[in-house]
Amino acid sequence: MFEEIIRNVREKSPLVHSITNYVTVNDCANTILACGASPIMADDQNEVEEITSICNALVINIGTLNERTIKSMIKAGKKANELNHPVVLDPVGAGASSLRTKTTFELLENIRFAVIRGNVSEIKTVYKGSGTTKGVDADVSDAITEENLEEAITFTKELSRRTDAVIAISGAIDIVADKNKAYVIRNGNALMSRITGTGCMLASLIGAYCGANPDNILDAAAAASSVMGLAGELAFEKLRKVDGGTSTYRTFLIDYISKIDEKTLNGGIKIEIR
Q1: Could you tell me the end-to-end alpha-carbon distance of the chain, in angstroms, rounded to an integer?
Q2: From edge to edge, which strands make up the β-sheet containing 166-170?
Q3: Domain count across the chain
Q4: Domain containing 129 — which CATH number?
Q5: Which residue range forms the structural domain that includes residue 78?
Q6: pLDDT of 131
Q7: Could you report the per-residue pLDDT of 129-172, keeping only the tens digit for each?
Q8: H/E stretch holding 175
Q9: Distance between CA atoms of residues 145 and 172, nearest Å
Q10: Cβ atoms of 36 and 192 closer than 8 Å
Q11: What whole-number distance in Å separates Cα of residue 208 and Cα of residue 194?
Q12: How far is it, in rounded angstroms, from Cα 174 to Cα 110?
């Protein structure tokens, strides 16, 4: 379904600038490499514009937020906009503190984002202007289920209309949507929530896919979400065979991101269009 999207990543090997959090920065860099792209992590405001100018995409992740990097994020985002490079926002923990919530909206005010990716609580915070999260994790009461799926699709499309960005919600059921079209993706494994950084890794993966497919942002984000979910399933299958734990699972997850090709994805994708 996403053959050209995946092929473009491997053939073009986009350079992705990530201003991301130091808890997951290594996993994010390895995820970008695994899918066939190249990472660069620079967050000093004296070089972010220069670094952004040589890249194909920018990922802004507020996971370990501080005043210094907020300025860097805005400078890099404006430069990427000037160059028409896709910019991905991961508003980690938006709603958990006033600083995170305020910064999310400051970034949205100053930067034009191609994709906003988060868990459902973070995306609801962006939608409503305020919210609550369980630290950097989604609030259980916000979970997307089959019962509230249509409502979630409606607010996701509406948020896309407001922000002019593709909205990617990660969870047991993923939604990736613009104002007109939503992909509902049911790949993944519950163990993904037990290792740090799978959301950050996905944001980086989306950045790589968008960098290689800047004219097809919706499908690029949906393809990345599908690859991540399927990699989680395949990694869990292998984990069971070796009786491994969460650390081994992280390794297998990155392994499968590097191994998934068009044929594997088409054989395992669980996706519908709404």
Answers
A1: 16
A2: 38-40, 15-19, 57-61, 87-90, 115-119, 166-170, 174-177, 182-185, 271-273
A3: 1
A4: 3.40.1190.20
A5: 3-273
A6: 55
A7: 765 554 444 554 578 999 999 999 999 999 999 999 999 999 99
A8: strand 174-177
A9: 8
A10: no
A11: 24
A12: 27
